[in-house]
């Protein structure tokens, strides 16, 4: 998987999404049930808004001093005998990891869920190198078994699949013989994967936050696969986006609380682990620990007008409240990062050539901004993208013409006065029984699905009524 | 523990990587930073809670995270644990090598304790074949129903994950309100230069997943059940 | 108290009755009405589409139009919220930043003005029926006004309110979004319409005409007889006085 999961047009992807009624039911009901859970977990913290502010300040402080904290992290990891590698590009990141593995002649790899490893196309690179790689997060494992179906949600990657589809995949690919109950499916996966953990030579995990003053990484999970991935194989390679770092455990604790509550409505997830290179006396855990810090386009965001997007802690809350995501699903975004945050960062990482539609796939309802635990002004960032896309002349000459005309009209009392006078007569040709039935392309989608009345006659308008009143009152 | 090869050290890439960051931030590299006071932003939720309140909070939360809470006493701890192990279907037991097992006079015939001398493979194998793990918590966090444990020579990481069932003994005086207190205590140790275990685990109940239709399944890769025993 | 009406272009072009109702209610509550005729549009359609410079022209026109107003009151949470964005948009612009802040500070959404400035929650309205209320995203999230419509509706005699499921989900209007991405918008308004129908209400109320044109247009297309009312119309409604012994209809 790379950043891009689908090369077709946005409109084709959207049509697929809108036509997938199972996916839409699954996403809709997930959104509805998570809403209550998230709210109650957030409320339980006391003053959620203050916690959000604390989260925002931690993230902003860390970003402003990112070089300092990364350097501190590197020093502390190395002091403990771990390795840290700074990768400017995805190629550097994935080939470093490949080289570490090849040098050990290791073949058996277990992985726990990590979005950044998707971004650097690690699975592809390692499989090319002849490794047997297993994704151990239940959702990711299901997708891998389904011939690497792309994830559609950053927290629940297989959200678009129902239990019967999963049962079918397990039956066809793994000889599963039981029914479609989620418990039985999960228990089956547990058994298969347990063996993989025990045999694995290298474990690869992501990293929710690196802790700079400790030289450790923090993993936040529920299934326990992340810990097994790090505990059993002799080599642990963790991969992090360069911005995913906190100064100390105290800030980590604030962010973990925001993350768990926002992502899944839990106070804390089942497993929150702070782990690093092994120390004297350890009998399990890695004999060799590598941390790969990935830039891959992030530094271009740093200090730009999109800087706040780097505050993201990948909780997925913005996906869970997004009414657009609700209907088109994650795959329609064509990116491993879907939803509102995806519509902000995907064009930054992948460019407008492939992703110029994403910032427009929002009604700007601001539900994302409202829910974001670190206060990223997501809908404002979408508007910034739109401005850039307009500046770069990527919106098409027709739209441009219309918008320029609208700009003139909406700023000119005289032109608007004329519009009020002529709108009704001009709409007559397009109307039937007082309703607009045809019109320029611009409004066809609108009237295809909704009734729209004709504009009011000038003599019946609000302004005319005001004028008439004024006349009557003799002013 | 060496990785040879030309580009496999952080030195070369690190400088240019960090320089890029500084330049994107429009300044020179920083070598000193003042950490802002974040904690003062957060309300002190401890208030006037007593130890009994904390126990109530812990019990209530455990209900939501599918974790059984049993109140016991040192005098009957052995029996409580034996009953729980029995209820898990008996089978083999693995404990940590925590000295508190001896201090409370706990014995589980035929069980193994995690021990440095046994080495990686044997410890992992014993944990994998154990039906029940029994450990002592370093702290418990009432609000989230969490126990905190640290890896040590007598307590490996996988002990908490491989056995099918998990029992944590919590001494009541080790219950604090939230993760805030645990993080602060650990952070004090870091700042004092004390070494920490290579893995600090905050464990809240059994493993679970909602990856299939967002329906909660309890018991995925880690333990299928979790029980806290309060003494 | 002199109140300058910010009618919004939708009311100007499509729904004069909303403007009229707003004026009548405000006058009944003792306000003196002023209508700066050079106002046009808050600039949101072009702003949200990414045409910043073109939008600024519309915004400047509005700042000038309302320059001498004491209070600016509009029947749309969304358009008023746009006014509240002006200071951000003109930040650092020596000629306009102060004007933007001034406009923000004196502009209110209609219900917000009645409750928060006039301090009134019972406007003496009455309307028999069962209604549900659609809260617009911009009014609740950008303007931050969640309560005032409900405080006022609570005091409308004869009106029974039914809660709307998923009331915080967008109806799919989003201004140019509904035009640019009609397929997605249609699914959103479809779901919203279903939620409205599930309430069994015979009236749908909102404080934003954009949402109402969207949801109402969809309901009408599906042949559903739900009546659409802007909250100004509800607050301006009085049941006819019935002679003694008569019955209300």
Automatic annotation (TrEMBL), chain A:
Pfam families: Fer4_8, LUD_dom. Signal peptide: none annotated. InterPro entries: 4Fe4S_Fe-S-bd, 4Fe4S_Fe_S_CS, FTHF_cligase-like_sf, Helical_ferredxn, LUD_dom, LutB/LldF, NagB/RpiA_transferase-like. The keyword Iron-sulfur applies. It comes from the Bacteria. Residues 1-23 are annotated as: Disordered. Keywords: 4Fe-4S, Electron transport, Iron, Iron-sulfur, Metal-binding, Repeat, Transport. This is Lactate utilization protein B. Residues 302-333 form the 4Fe-4S ferredoxin-type domain. The gene is lutB. The lineage of its organism: Bacteria, Bacillati, Bacillota, Bacilli, Bacillales.
UniProtKB/TrEMBL annotation, chain B:
Pfam families: LUD_dom (PF02589). This is Lactate utilization protein C. Signal peptide: none annotated. Residues 67-231 form the LUD domain. It comes from Paenibacillus auburnensis.
From TrEMBL, chain C:
It comes from the Bacteria. Residues 3-83, 132-215 form the Cysteine-rich domain. Pfam families: CCG. InterPro entries: Cys_rich_dom, LutA. Is involved in L-lactate degradation and allows cells to grow with lactate as the sole carbon source. HAMAP family: LutA. Belongs to the LutA/YkgE family. This is Lactate utilization protein A. It comes from Paenibacillus auburnensis.
